[in-house]
Write a structure and sequence with these properties.
Elements: H1 10-29, H2 31-43, E1 47-53, H3 60-64, E2 71-76, H4 86-101, E3 106-114, H5 130-148, E4 155-163, E5 168-172, E6 178-180, H6 192-199, H7 205-227, E7 240-244, E8 256-259, H8 267-282, E9 291-299, H9 304-327, H10 329-332, E10 335-343, E11 348-351
Parallel strand pairs: 1-2, 1-3, 3-4, 7-8, 7-9, 9-10
Antiparallel strand pairs: 4-5, 5-6, 10-11
Helix pairs in contact: 6-7, 8-9
Length: about 350
């Protein structure tokens, strides 16, 4: 079918989305990718966490040429987080503690994004205000230091800009120094080790070692992008609202609005997302025959964990649907809901049986 996905009937769009999730799981579980992850982790055992926006362009494994499953994502609408949020703070602390118990250090990459070519291609969560997005990232770094200490010997918070036109990373270091990887060519990668050391003199050597492959991968990716004829996705055409966790497969631009289950007030981002969907329909950017509300919760093992994930996902779906019904009753008539759980070891999305509410 040559019709762009965003222009197809809602049922066709949903089928395409489910196929995307299946392909992601198959790729993640393939023998080649499984072995690549095992080999990579044997050589680079730092746990890498990325706090980032829901924007599908912010795909760190892709832009750093890192095997799938190495970078542990925390995604939320606008990349807006507060470690004072009880669930988020507990989840991050538990993730770090698990790594430390295994003898691993932790690198937390705190991202903001922008476009150097057009302000309107920036982060919608901050109304495309680069300064606000960047300052929020630095505020998260301060919170990470308050939570894990500012000695940085076990947990290192790194603020990283993401320029979406060329997928280029901008690494912020000490004394307001930064390294724009779009200015580095593959021929210069041998010099990056010393530049990283100068940028982060307090970064433990093992974390520096494990950051370098991401840096080198991004430098090569930028060079590849410049040789390609990539169309910049300017217009917002989102037609999916995702709530929960387990949406790694949704790395397609202008497709979905992802709301992590982190904020104590989930109704606010749900209203924001529904308003964007409504505006997209009214402007004709997507068909007005429907949109998808997709909830997800991950589980590691069958039994109680899987049952708990099922309950979480059902609750999130019902909660979000109720907010949309109350705030946007006409839009809610065109809502299709799907509640899913994610088999985390296989990254397999399992849509739960039940009536797809509208």
């Amino acid at each position: 079918m040559n019709t762009p996905v965003h222009s197809r009937p809602i049922n066709d769009r949903i089928d395409w989305l489910m196929e995307l999730s299946r392909n992601h799981s198959a790729s993640f579980c393939s023998p080649e990718n499984h072995l690549a992850r095992q080999r990579y982790l044997a050589e680079h055992n730092t746990l890498i966490i990325a706090m980032k926006c829901m924007d599908g362009r912010i795909h760190l494994p892709y832009v750093t040429q890192t095997p799938l499953g190495i970078i542990h994502p925390f995604r939320n609408l606008g990349g807006i987080f507060d470690l004072g949020w009880p669930y988020l703070g507990d989840l991050l602390a538990d993730t770090v503690q698990e790594a430390v118990n295994a003898g691993r250090r932790v690198l937390i990459i705190i991202t903001y994004h922008y476009s150097k070519g057009a302000t309107e291609r920036g982060c919608a969560g901050f109304n495309c205000d680069l300064d606000s997005a960047r300052e929020h990232a630095f505020s998260i770094r301060r919170q990470v230091e308050a939570l894990f200490g500012n000695g940085h010997q076990t947990v290192y918070p790194l603020v990283c800009g993401f320029e979406t036109d060329e997928d280029a990373l901008l690494l912020h270091g000490r004394d307001q120094l930064c390294l724009d990887l779009s200015t580095v060519t593959p021929a210069d990668t041998e010099e990056t080790r010393s530049r990283i050391a100068g940028l982060y003199p307090d970064m433990p050597a093992p974390i520096q070692r494990d950051l370098l492959p991401l840096v080198h991968g991004n430098i090569q990716h930028i060079a590849d992008i410049r040789e390609s004829d990539r169309e910049l996705n300017i217009e917002h055409r989102e037609w999916v609202i995702c709530i929960g966790r387990g949406f790694d497969f949704l790395h397609a631009p202008n497709l979905a609005l992802i709301i992590g289950p982190y904020s104590p007030d989930l109704s606010h981002p749900i209203r924001q997302a529904a308003g964007i969907i409504k505006a997209n329909m009214e402007a004709g950017r997507v068909p007005d025959d429907g949109f998808l509300l997709l909830s997800s919760a991950p589980y590691q093992e069958p039994g109680t964990q899987k049952a708990r994930a099922t309950l979480k996902s059902a609750f999130l779906s019902e909660f979000a649907a109720n907010v949309i019904h109350q705030e946007f009753p006409e839009l809610a008539e065109r809502m299709v809901t799907r509640s899913a759980i994610l088999n985390w070891p296989e990254r397999r999305l399992e849509v739960q049986p039940g009536k797809p509410g509208t």
